[in-house]
Amino acid sequence: MDEDFLPNGPYHYTSEIYHRKLHNLASVISQLGTELTPDGPALLGTAEIENDRVLEDLEKQPEIAARNYKHVWFDGPDIRSIDCGLLYNPKYFKVIYAESLTVDISKSGEKGGKTRDVLHVCGNLLGDTVHVFVNHWPSRRGGEAASAPLRAIAANVSKHVIDSLMAINPNTKAIIMGDLNDDPTSPSIKNVLGAKEEKTTTAFNEIYNPWIKFYNKGLGTLAYQDAWGLFDQVMLTGTFLKNDDAHWRYYKAEVFNRNFLITKTGQYKGYPHRSFDGNNWIDGYSDHFPVVLYLIKASN
C-alpha cells in the first residue's frame, strides 16, 4: 500500500502534489479557531500519517511556521502506514509522556488482526494535566453492522485507560478525538464510551459528546451517497464541565465547513473538496471537514 503514493503508483503522487497537499492542509490549519484565538489550535489530531517527516514538513509550511508546532507520532502496526499523530503548540502544551496503545482485533476474525493504534499523549496545558487520545477506528469496510465490533474494540481502548486514570484521580481531564468511522449515536460511542448528550447529566467520570446535537440537526463532516455522517469528533470527560474558571472547561464546538472547503460542481457538489477524484489529483483538501472544540479558562 505504501507504493500507492509514489510517482509510479496509481495516484502518480509526485513531489509537486505532496507539497501542494501540505500547503492546502496548512492553509486550513492556519484558519482553525482564529476567530477566538489568533494562535489557532493548541492541539491538533492528525490521521493517515505515513511517517515522521510528513509532520515535520507540515509544521514548516509558511502559513503556520510561526506557531512552532511540534508533534508526537509513532509508527504503528497497520501495514498501510496510516498512523495517528498529534501536533501541539509548545507555547500552550508541554508533553509529559506519550504511548501508542494497541487495538487488538486478532480475536475478531479480521484478516491480519492489526489496525491503527490509539495515540495517548499526556501533557500540561497551561497548568492543567490533560490526557489526549487520538483515534482512527477501523473502517466500515464489509458493512456498518459487520464491522461494528471492530470499532467497539477500538473505543474500549481509550475508555479502559480513562477509567483507570479516573480510579486513581477523579479529577482527570481527558480528550478523545479522531476519525471514528462512526456517528455520535453509534453503539461504539453511545454504549462503549457511554458518551452523553447533555452537559447537565454528564458525571465528572463520564464522557460528554457535543456532536450528538450537531448530528441530530443533520450536520456532518463527510458525505456518502448524499447522506451526511459525523465521524470526526472531539469528546471530553465531564471534568471539563465543572464551573471552575481557574481550570480549562468546555466552551463550544464547531464543524469547520467554510465555503472554500466545499466542492462547487460535479458528482460531489456540496461535499467536502477532496484531494483526489478516483486516482486524479484535483487540488482539494480532504473528503472530511475538520472539527474544532474550544476550551476556556480565566487569565492570570
Commentary on this structure:
This protein is α+β, with helices and mostly antiparallel strands. It contains five helices and 15 strands.
Task: Name its key features.
about 25% strand, Deoxyribonuclease I, Chain A, alpha+beta, globular, about 300 residues, 15 strands, three-stranded antiparallel β-sheet
Question: What's the topology here?
Answer:
Layout (H helix, E strand, L loop, with lengths): L14 H15 L13 E7 L2 H8 L10 E4 L9 E6 L4 E9 L16 E8 L2 E9 L7 H25 L4 E7 L7 H6 L14 E2 L2 H6 L5 E3 L2 E3 L2 E6 L11 E7 L20 E2 L2 E2 L9 E6 L4
Parallel strand pairs: 6-7
Antiparallel strand pairs: 1-3, 2-3, 4-5, 5-6, 7-11, 8-11, 9-10, 12-15, 13-14
Give me a quick take on this structure.
The chain has 5 helices and 15 strands.
Helix-strand sequence: HEHEEEEEHEHEHEEEEEEE
CATH C-level class is: Alpha Beta
Distance between the termini: 50 Å
Q: Sketch the major β-sheet.
A: 6 strands, mixed
Number of DSSP strands? 15
Strand order of the largest sheet: 4-5-6-7-11-8
Helix fraction bin: 10-25%
